[in-house]
Design goal:
The chain is built from six helices and two strands, in the order H-H-H-H-H-H-E-E. It is mainly alpha-helical and about 120 residues long. Keywords: Signal. It comes from Salix brachista.
């Protein structure tokens, strides 16, 4: 059985995956995705939970999300399991990423979720 801590980390990881897509063309130096997880959890988790409406993310959430690099994406995507997708809304993850100014290309796949056309 997964713990609440596992679900929080998975939530942050999925958020980082989508944010990482934005970085693909920027060629930033990679940061370890696990170092970013605590900040994403504390600043962004409430915006991507399954229950409730879409809510625009805070400036703090966007600031953390924009720190993700392309090299972080595989780290996060590996952790997007069916159990994780029961806790977080991948649709909300895309919404938050795009609201933070990060383009998320249609067709991007993580876990069983494929980003639909805008």
């Amino acid at each position: 059985m997964a713990t609440a801590n596992t679900h929080r980390h998975a939530l942050a990881l999925s958020m980082l995956l989508i944010v990482g897509v934005h970085i693909l063309g920027n060629h930033k130096v990679s940061a370890n995705c696990k170092e970013i997880v605590p900040s994403l959890v504390s600043n962004c988790s409430r915006f991507v939970r399954v229950p409730g409406p879409k809510v625009p993310p805070s400036a703090a959430c966007c600031q953390v999300a924009q720190a993700v690099t392309v090299a972080d994406v595989p780290c996060f995507c590996k952790l997007i399991t069916p159990a994780v997708q029961k806790v977080i809304s991948m649709e909300k993850v895309v919404y938050v990423a795009r609201t933070c100014g990060l383009p998320v290309p249609p067709g991007t796949v993580c876990g069983s979720y494929t980003v639909p056309p805008n």
